[in-house]
Amino acid sequence: NPLTRLPGNTTILCETTARIESGKPFALAYLDIDNFKSFNDRYGYGRGDEVLVVACRILTTVVGELAGTEGFVGHVGGDDFVFMSPPDRIDAICETVIKRFDLVIPDFYDREDRLRGYIDSVDRKGNREQFPMMSLSIAVVTNTHRTIDHPGDVSKIASELKKCAKAQKGSVFVKDQRSAELLHTEDAA
Q1: How many CB atoms lie within 10 A of CB 185?
Q2: pLDDT computed for residue 187 by the predictor
Q3: Distance (Å, whole) CA 90 – CA 58
């Protein structure tokens, strides 16, 4: 990615495939910055780019600190990132990323917006709305409870989990703990 210098979609796909094919336990987290579009609309792309660079720095630092050479960070595009680590380190990574992001993000807002706790902006349909400060929604997929055979499976699971994360207020991470047996039962229902 030209802005963050992180690997993009092709490399993310190759890394995901390599981890699946290795058969070793892995965790993949999909990170989305909530309310980023409204921030960009209010403050402009330059300030939005600064947020993306800071998010990138936080991610690469935390993943490097907690996963070392077993970690990976990629930039899907826009305000969407992916990071990978061994499953036993993913919770600590998510918690630390959220803590650091939530600590610095208020500084990107003008004083009056920061004090109010939201910005007035327009939603995707053109309606005026109050948008809370940016937060993180992180969806975590692991192969510890079930076999994952294809990168498309990871995307499908992450998409489902991202909806759950975005339905909650503030910065959160949601981790898939369902087993293959439970999934088959849900599909049959």
Answers
A1: 11
A2: 46
A3: 15
